[in-house]
Amino acid sequence: MSRRSGILEFAVLGLLRESPMHGYELRKRLNTSLGVFRAFSYGTLYPCLKTLVANGWLIEETGSAAEATAALAGRRAKIVYRLTAEGKEHFEQLLSQTGPDAYEDETFAARFAFFGQTSRDVRMRVLEGRRSRLEERLEKMRASLARTRERLDDYTLELQRHGMESVEREVRWLNELIESERAGRDLRGSDSERSARQDTTHGTPGGLPRTGDRPGPDTPDDTAT
């Protein structure tokens, strides 16, 4: 399984842990609530759901009165996906993982989206690991810029500076989060600070880049899910 598929499966399990949903609701939540998935191809969602059902982590249900009416009218009923006990246990195992993969750009953004369901000690390890990863990246960027500065034109140089500033901004953001975690403070305590931080990071955790494929035009029929 590719890293990207693993991230999507993790997010689907996390969303369904909150409540059962049909495919359209899942697509909407992935798109609007978890910004990191805005560029994921929706065509990858349905194979992901089938895989999770085959693994026994989800079950498909089609039992509501509205769905029965749709069936009588000749329309296919929407399938509602519900997390099983095995799926919940698997998701909790994924939440507890703090290895190097949790610090990567794509994985960290998805992990952060479910920090509300993650224990504080795990959150701390992931945040500190992410900060260390970015500090290493920043050191390499500075060394590279020092070596090549004289050979770069003004625009390329400005682009590299912009990249460094983005990483520096996320490191500062991580420092704030780590300090809050250590102090046991609620992150919702300062709405103005949160708004300011989102304004400077385009609404994504730490200014992380959006990842994945662009949505394709061949989106599957919603009524089947």
UniProtKB/TrEMBL annotation:
Keywords: Coiled coil
Superkingdom of the organism of origin: Bacteria
SUPFAM superfamilies associated with the record: Winged helix' DNA-binding domain (SSF46785)
Composition-biased stretches (Basic and acidic residues): 182-200
Ranges for region Disordered: 182-225
Transcription regulator PadR N-terminal domain ranges (all copies): 12-92
Listed name of the protein: PadR family transcriptional regulator
Source organism (scientific name): Streptomyces griseoviridis
